[in-house]
User: Fold Polar amino acid transport system ATP-binding protein from Streptomyces africanus.
Amino acid sequence: MATARPAVEVAGLHKSYGGLDVLKGVDLSVAAGEVVCVIGPSGSGKSTLLRCVNLLEEPTSGVVLVDGVRLNHPDTDLDAARRRMGMVFQMFNLFPHLTVLGNVTIAQRRVLKRDRAEAERVGRDCLARVGVEDKADAYPAQLSGGQQQRVAIARALAMNPSVMLFDEPTSALDPELVGEVLTVIRDLGTDGMTMLVVTHEMAFARDVADRVVFMDAGVIVEEGLPSQVIDDPRHERTRTFLHRVL
Ligand code: ADP
Ligand code: MG
Assistant:
C-alpha cells in the first residue's frame, strides 16, 4: 500500500480564469497505491483540480508534483510527466476510425515508440484486464458506452501510468452500464493502482476509496475515511451536498 513519497502532491494550488477564482488553495496528496475519491457539487472545481494535475491547465500558483517531479516548473519535461498519468474522462473520446486495438496501440507506438507487435501484445493484455479482449477488431460505434469507456481505460493503462485520473467516468453512461465500468476501476485499485477519481457514485466511493475528499467552491472542505466523510460528515456543507445526492 502506501509508501513514503506521495504519488501526487498538490500544495497551495490556485487557479483563476480572468477574475474567477476556481481553486482557492488546494492541498492534497495521494500516496502510491492509494485510491482517493473526490466528491462535491457541480462547479466546485473538481475537474479543474484534475486538469491542473494532468497538465491540461497551468496553475495560477501553487505546486503540483507527480512521482516527486514538479510539473509546473520550466525545467520539467512535460511530455515525460504526462506519460506518468492516465486520464479517463466522462466522454470516452475514442478515435472512431480506428478499431479498438488501434485505439489502444496508437499512443504506445507514437509516444512510447513501441513496435507493432509489442504495442498489440500490451494492448490485448490491457483489453483483457478490462474484459473487452473479444472486441479488439470492432470499431467504437459497434460498442456499448460501457465497453467504450472500458476501452478508454485500457488505452490509458497501455501507457503504464503510475497514476490514473478519472473525471466522472460513468456520468455519460446509461444507468445499467455504470456497474461494469466501476467494477473495472475497483479492480485496478485492488491491484494497487494509484487513483484519483472524481465521482458522483457515493456507493462506489464508500466501497473503493481509501480516502474521500469533499470539495466545495474551490476548496477542500473535509477529507477522511469514506465512512467518516460520507456517513458522518463534520461540515454542514458536506451534509447539505450528501443530503442532495444520497
Ligand atoms: P466541477 O468539475 O466541480 O463541476 P469545474 O472545475 O469544471 O467544476 O469548474 C469550476 C468552475 O470553473 C466553474 O464555475 C466553471 O464555470 C469554471 N471554469 C472551468 N473551466 C473554465 C475555463 N476554461 N474558463 C473559465 N471558467 C472555467
Ligand atoms: Mg467536472
